[in-house]
User: What shape does this take?
Amino acid sequence: EAGVTQSPTHLIKTRGQQATLRCSPISGHTSVYWYQQALGLGLQFLLWYDEGEERNRGNFPPRFSGRQFPNYSSELNVNALELEDSALYLCASSLAGGRTGELFFGEGSRLTVL
Amino acid sequence: QKEVEQDPGPLSVPEGAIVSLNCTYSNSAFQYFMWYRQYSRKGPELLMYTYSSGNKEDGRFTAQVDKSSKYISLFIRDSQPSDSATYLCAMSRVGSNYKLTFGKGTLLTVNP
Assistant: This one.
């Protein structure tokens, strides 16, 4: 069974540009989560999508946004990129009714902002 | 005070050693406690999962939760070079399965 897949693996942008990251959850998983793993800061919760709706967001500015498609895949958009947005962006999925906190992570998309 | 504190290490041990990894936390609402393992350039994978206080054993791994002290531990027995990775503790409140609060991770190297 395929795990969570993310694309692109690496992305290089300059300040002020926009970045779009993509995620496909494990088949049968309806919830998708986005986390940011910045150097020295650990994993920080960004966004949670379930059944096509944004259910909750972490303490990030509105220029971080996304959506979930009918096939449960998801996009994360980061507008007006800043240098401190450089990080590994991890997508995770979970089974509806699964154990609390049991997330299955992809390998991440590394965003570098120059 | 950060919600979750974890010693970043790095921790270097010889093969076969017993490894102890720890996290402390401040939010008494946390009920679910997890340990994730992250190999270099990979995403985290769930290693151990515990609800509330107590111990859980899975092969060479034992997770302990002491809610009275707000302290969780992961023990690795007979450590192997393949255990070399970053270990992340994570916790969640009831009803908040969407949001895990992670420690910063401890980098472990097991030397053959």
